[in-house]
Design a protein that fits this description.
With 175 residues, this protein is of the alpha+beta class. The chain is 54% helix and 22% strand. The radius of gyration is 35 Å and the shape is rod-shaped.
Length: 175
């Protein structure tokens, strides 16, 4: 009798422990089910955020590049530059500084074509120093890089007899 009573109390204690463990297992399973739902929600939110980022880049990219070109060609303004990168370029080549007194009205862009972030610009300038300054400013810009001057030549003016320099440039744009 005493042996049976001892074993019965041990069985009751073990059944109580098992019941506690089953309760914990149920709680953990509930959390795991919620975890899957949270993971799905998180993946959906990440996809939405990626789509918004792509749309914002597409919206601001070409527009920002054209605004940068406008700033470069506006008298008294210049390219948007990273100060550290600009200083490093000046340290490597002191002659690569932009001319703050340059009159951007001496350059006319006649064609701007972009395909696959490769841009070809054609235009006219008063002389080769203006073409050089434009190329230098484009090269310092945070939006343009790998500026290459393509063959150009002299052209007649618009009735005033002034000689113009035709130019073409190929460059890459980042946005």
């Amino acid at each position: 009798m005493w042996f049976h009573q001892t074993k019965t109390s041990e069985l009751g204690a073990q059944l109580a422990k098992n019941k506690g463990y089953q309760s914990e297992i149920g709680n953990i399973q509930t959390l795991v089910k919620q975890h899957e739902a949270v993971k799905k929600d998180l993946a959906a939110l990440q996809a939405r955020e990626d789509a918004i980022t792509k749309l914002e880049k597409a919206r601001t990219g070409p527009t920002a590049a054209m605004l940068e070109l406008s700033r470069i060609l506006t008298p008294g303004k210049g390219p948007t530059v990273d100060p550290d990168r600009y200083q490093a370029k000046l340290k490597a080549n002191p002659l690569s500084a932009v001319n703050p007194a340059w009159d951007a009205r001496r350059v006319w862009i006649t064609s701007f074509k972009e395909k696959g972030r490769l841009v070809e610009i054609q235009g006219l300038a008063r002389d080769s120093t203006d073409v050089s300054e434009l190329g230098l400013r484009l090269g310092h810009s945070s939006y343009f890089w790998d500026v290459k001057l393509l063959p150009g030549g002299k052209q007649g003016g618009q009735g005033d007899g002034a000689q113009m320099v035709g130019f073409a440039m190929q460059l890459k744009v980042r946005y």
